Amino acid sequence: MVARDDLNPDRSIWHFIAVHLRRYREMHGLSGQALADKLDCDRSTVSRYESSTLKLPRKHAKIIDRLWQTDGMFMCLIGFAEQAADGDWLIGLAEYEKRATRIRLWELLLVPGLLQTEDYARAAIMRGVSEDPEETLRVRMARRAAVFDKPKPSRFTAFLNWTVLEQPVGSSEVMRGQLEHLIAMSELPTVSIRVVEKHAGAHPGHDGSFQIVTADGRDLAYLEAMTRGRILMDPYDLQDVAVRYDMVSDIAAPVGPSRALLEQALESCR
């Protein structure tokens, strides 16, 4: 049996479900047996759900969502987990992006993956630690196409730190192509790209890059990490990320001046 201490919710969606099932149960003051009674199952079944040795089924997730008024969170998580057969968060995130009506993101260091050209993405991936760079590139380009090439594209807003425009990735030609792509994307009616300039100083965005995706009537947040990112669906966690997003929005340059900054960065690459 997997020990609870061995669960890794940053890597596996099923582990995330297990950890949060126990968290919500304890938060509502229920023993394992009390929850088992409400689910009409054995206490050992609840224990196996919470250790991720048994996957939480939809019929029990529906009862839990109703019991704790989670607005369908556990049912939604199971949907992600079923899409990601190997438990990888990125697969679940990509499915959510595909259905998104709105995507908001903040990027601290590099052009975000959804806005990368193929050449820029390849250069960024090659300097990393991917075991299969070409497969990683294929997945990234597929995510981009799923967001921007669908009949009704998502409303997309990106806040970019000034370092994104100055950090060289690949050759000068690669950077020029990437900046030209950002300018072209910023001119689309569904896309807004704004830049946080150097003089903004220290601000909450320096804590790290993040993304907020709205799909199926609910929000999800994705926090980037050095190895693997982390998805947040808890309303309290989402509120914290939304506040950070608003604070970055307060200091970002408007759309027009931001486009001028992109054009200025392009000129410096010529």
Order of helices and strands: HHHHHHEHHEHHEEEEHH
Largest sheet: 6 strands, mixed
* Termini Cα gap: 60 Å
Helix content: 40-55%
Number of strands: 6
Radius of gyration: 21 Å
The CATH architecture of the largest domain can be given as 2-Layer Sandwich
CATH level-1 class of the largest domain = Alpha Beta
Taken from the alpha-carbon principal axes, the silhouette is: elongated
Strand-helix topology:
Blueprint: H1 13-27, H2 32-39, H3 43-51, H4 58-68, H5 73-83, H6 89-98, E1 102-107, H7 118-126, H8 133-148, E2 155-161, H9 162-166, H10 172-186, E3 191-196, E4 210-215, E5 218-223, E6 230-232, H11 235-251, H12 255-268
Parallel strand pairs: 1-2, 2-3
Antiparallel strand pairs: 1-4, 4-5, 5-6
Written account of the structure:
It comes from Actinomadura vinacea. Residues 21-51 form the HTH cro/C1-type domain. Pfam families: DUF5753, HTH_31. InterPro entries: Cro/C1-type_HTH (IPR001387), DUF5753 (IPR043917), Lambda_DNA-bd_dom_sf (IPR010982). The protein is α/β, with parallel strands linked by helices and 270 residues long. It folds into two domains: 4-83, Orthogonal Bundle (434 Repressor (Amino-terminal Domain)), CATH 1.10.260.40; 89-268, Endonuclease, Chain A (2-Layer Sandwich). Helix content is 52%, strand content 13%. The chain has twelve helices and six strands. It has helices at residues 13-27, 32-39, 43-51, 58-68, 73-83, 89-98, 118-126, 133-148, 162-166, 172-186, 235-251, 255-268, and strands spanning 102-107, 155-161, 191-196, 210-215, 218-223, 230-232. The chain starts with 12 loop residues before the first helix and ends with a helix.
